[in-house]
Structure formats: C-alpha cells, structure tokens
Specification:
With 71 residues, the chain is mainly alpha-helical. The chain has helices at residues 5-8, 10-14, 19-27, 41-45, 52-65. It has one domain (5-65): DNA polymerase, domain 1 (Orthogonal Bundle).
C-alpha cells in the first residue's frame, strides 16, 4: 500500500515546518531528521520552499539529535 504524501512529511509536520518546506524535503526524498545526513546545508537551503525559519528549526532539531549535514 503506497504511503500518502501527508504520511511522508509527518516527522516534518511534528517539528512545526511550513507546508512549502515539508514539500521541499519530501521532494528531495528526505523523510526524517536522520535523512539530513545525506545533504549539505547549502543544498538544503537551496531547495525551493526552504526558508530561513525552516532552516533555523531544522538546525535546532539536528543539534538536539546530534546530527550533522553532509560536508
């Protein structure tokens, strides 16, 4: 049974990201905070829909979970 789009972005929804940022992450096949290890900070910031507040929230969550961007 295929996942519904709203299920794919549920982790992002829970941490309070706006719809445009959630869509950008799902389109980039980034479904969980741990998936952010696969992308550089610059590439994430360049995604369509990824704004400053979303980036700040993502970095805050990553620090809390001790996850780092791809170098």
């Amino acid at each position: 049974m295929p996942s519904k789009p709203q299920e794919l972005d549920s982790e992002w929804y829970k941490i309070g990201l706006a719809a445009a940022a959630r869509r950008a992450l799902v389109d980039a096949k980034l479904y969980r905070v741990s998936d952010l290890r696969k992308i550089s900070e610059q590439d994430l910031a360049n995604l369509q829909g990824m704004g400053k507040s979303a980036m700040a929230r993502i970095k805050q969550i990553m620090r809390a979970k001790k996850i780092k961007f791809l170098d």
